[in-house]
Structure formats: structure tokens, C-alpha cells
């Protein structure tokens, strides 16, 4: 009888150990959804410092124009396949916030089963985040409107070719100019920076974004320009060149 009890006792211990091991594995391999880093709710408001880099007349130089941007979620709807779309309106004012807010653009955030997409006012659709959120995970975020790595300067979408979205520093803290975020993720999109040479032809593409868990987009840095060196006829920046820095204030 005592032996039987010992056997039962050993079986219980083994079962408990197996259950604990399985639980630990489930916790270690838990999937982090991209929606945790891009939470969206009707009525949400995000304030940003917006620095826009644009070419001057005839492309002789690039200048920065700065604003305060306010992104407001104005509508939410569910479609037939289960995707949720959030309509966002962007208003801007001067950096001192002394003027009135002016509507400048609108965009949409779409929750699909495994992605968080952004659709611009011009119809371009970007897969901004993808599940699972883990270091090294990568995806083709521009697949809806460009494909391949080669581009021509005559193509209006030249800046968006060759991108490869990937996660870095998942769960690490991030210090911005305005806040410290305890859990963030860096999304590297493209890094094709060339040293500036005033005598050479240069084509530069750079894009990186940072998202905070439970907050959303906290930083965006994009730079795209084509520059014709002074050794060539018609030197200067192509008028399609642009740069954007967006930093969350609150």
C-alpha cells in the first residue's frame, strides 16, 4: 500500500513538473501583437513636433519648416472581413501654438489580423507594424504599391523602393526630446545614406520609426533627396526631395 502511495506521489510530481515546464515555454514564446504598439481608440489625440524639410525655389537648398501637429481619431468602423479602420485627421499650428489649428491632411490606420497598416490621403498603403513584434523580424511594408529594389528618378515613388522593415530594441526604453518611454520598439525601414558631396550626384533614402507600447508612434525620421552636383548642368536638389521629423509631445 505504501509503495502504491509512493508511485501516485511520484506521478503527481512528474505531472506538476510537466505542467510548469509547458507553462514556462508558453510564456517564453508568447506572441506580442503589433496592436500593442499602435493602440487606437475613437477620440484619441496625439500631439507632435513636426519638422518638414523641403527644397527652396529651383532646388538650391533645403529648409526646415516647423509646426505642432495634432492627430485626432475621428471615426472607427469594422468591415466585412473583420478589419477595423480608424480615420485620423491631422491639424497643425505654429510652434508657439498662438494661431488656429488648420486641417492639413487625413489618413487611416487599419487593423488587419496580423498587421497595422497606414493609408495616406493619396492612397499609398504602408504595413507599418507586423505581428509578431520581436527583434530581427522583418517584412515588406511597401508591397501594396512598389516592388523590387530598382527605381528611376522619373518614378514618383522612387523614395519607397528597396525598403526592408525590421524590428530592433524590442521592449527597451527610449528617450525622446520630450519624454522617456519604458517599453518601445525601433522599426528600421531603409538606411541608404551617402556622404554629401557638392560636386556629385547623390540619392539618399532613410526612414526609421519608434513606437511605444500602449502609446503608439513616438518618433519618425525620414529623409529622401536627389542632388545634382555643381559639376553638372542644373545643379541642386530635385523638387521631389523631402524630409520629415515627427516627435511626440504628449
What key phrases describe this protein's structure?
globular, mainly beta, 13-stranded antiparallel β-sheet
Average of the residue pLDDT scores: 87
Tally of helical segments: 1
Radius of gyration: 24 Å
Kindly state the number of beta strands. Answer: 13
Could you tell me the strand content as a percent range?
over 45%
Total individual domains: 1
Poorly predicted runs are: 14-28
> Order of SSEs, N→C?
HEEEEEEEEEEEEE
Gross morphology = globular
Summarize the main sheet.
Answer: 13 strands, antiparallel
Helical percentage: 10-25%
Structural class: mainly beta
Give the CA-CA distance, first to last residue.
69 Å
Describe this structure in words.
With 250 residues, this protein is mainly β. The chain has one domain. Helices cover 11% and strands 47% of the residues. The longest helix has 27 residues. It is globular, with a radius of gyration of 24 Å.
How would you summarize the topology of this molecule?
Layout: H1 2-28, E1 45-55, E2 62-78, E3 84-93, E4 102-111, E5 115-119, E6 125-130, E7 138-139, E8 165-175, E9 180-192, E10 202-212, E11 216-228, E12 236-237, E13 242-248
Antiparallel strand pairs: 1-2, 1-13, 2-3, 3-4, 4-5, 5-6, 7-8, 8-9, 9-10, 10-11, 11-12, 11-13
